[in-house]
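Sanity check. The docking grid for magnesium ion depends on where the pocket ends up, so I'm generating a full predicted complex first rather than guessing from homology. Inputs follow.
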Amino acid sequence: MNQKIQYDILVVDDNHSNLRLLTEILTDVGYKVRPVTDGKTALMTAFSKPPDLILLDVRIPDISGYEVCEKLKSDRRTMDIPVIFISALSEVLDKVRAFSVGGVDYITKPLQAEEVVARVKTQMNLRSLQKSLQEQNAMLQRVIGERLRAEEELIKQTIQLEDLNKTLAEKVAFEIQKNMENEMLLSQQSKLASMGEMLGVIAHQWKQPINAISLIAFDVRDAYEHGDLNNDYLLDSMKQIREQVTHMAETINDFLEFFKPSKEKVPFKLNTAIKKTIILAQYQLKKMSIGISLNCTYEREGKTIPYDLPNEICSCSPEIEVQGYPNEFKQVILNLINNAKDAILNKRGQANRSAKEGRIDLELSYSSGKAIIRVKDNGGGIKGDIIGRIFEPFFTHKESGMGIGLYMAKVIIEKHMGGKMYAENDEDGAVFIIELDGDFQE
Ligand SMILES: Nc1ncnc2c1ncn2[C@@H]1O[C@H](COP(=O)(O)OP(=O)(O)OP(=O)(O)O)[C@@H](O)[C@H]1O
Ligand SMILES: [Mg+2]
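Predicted complex below; grid placement will be based on this.
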């Protein structure tokens, strides 16, 4: 009965004994009953506190039951409340009108308690079903509303995210561009730094042919004075001069080519590139009593280049070919050689008179698709506490250093040529290792 107690029924009848009887029947089965005797009070009561069901006598003194029903059905507060009409058997109930004004059922007097309870119960069940349907519907509407709102929010957030992504992509592109410009600038600075040293190399390379030309000039004069200068003699002397001049021009071309930035990735021979760099550095190293060698360990008869044989060509064969920027790669090797030279000189400068002969040994090996270049010196190694920072831009321990040599080298090897570059110390000094994808050139 718990459920029925919740239901509230408005009973409208001007006949007091009927009203009492109905109130008793319904209260007995657990409904809450509000009895009224006229139409106006019925309407007021229903509007101010809508009941769950209305039992409405057709004949009431002020307004007819049909009119009361019509008014109830035309008001939003009461339109859904089921109305059961009550009429006396003697009266003629206008059933058509009763249903057309919104009644759901009718009961005839004299009242039978069971019939009243049964009809009320049926309406209450329907009402309860209707209510729960309405509640479910409202809940569904709420859920749909929330979903729609969530979807709208999601769309808004997606748009915001896309915008953010776009600006982020633009920012990243801008930073990359800036970075590239900086790197180019650094690379240019690094090249200028080695240009001074290179001029020394050119001067050295030119000394010998200039001497030779001057000797030929003296020789021609001697021949003339002794009457030996004939046509053949002159042609031969001129040929010799031309050869010397060609040699000088080649030196300049090599030098210019070294400083020309490579435009695009090309396949090039590692051995030749390393060897050419060594030749450029050799003259200076010799002056400082620093020996340099290149050893190809993938070939049984790898050849070492002694520093007093500047034009000796490494005979390692076949050569290893890699994809990349040959001139930039040569810069990397030159930077490593210069750093090694600085380390060796620094060690000597520390009054270490018993220092061993300075040595820079390059080694080229090959293992499962990778060319491995090791540049090793006996300059005492990288101080333990800085080894993790030497590849940072502008990190230097030298008074006149810029600290970009190794940074640039790593950018060229790793970013531009897809390789790896790292450093370690061995018992004599530092070892720089470069790994590049490569293949043997047939
Ligand atoms: N072979 C080496 N042995 C010992 N220390 C080294 C060696 N190579 C590099 N370093 C250390 O790493 C630092 C950074 O080297 P990096 O070439 O980047 O700059 P730098 O030589 O100081 O200046 P620069 O820009 O002129 O090359 C050096 O200052 C030095 O302390
Ligand atoms: Mg350096």
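Relevant for the grid: The pocket of adenosine-5'-triphosphate (ligand 1) is lined by residues 193, 335, 339-340, 343, 377, 379, 381-382, 390, 395-398, 401-407, 429-430 (CB under 6 Å).
Also worth noting: The radius of gyration is 53 Å.
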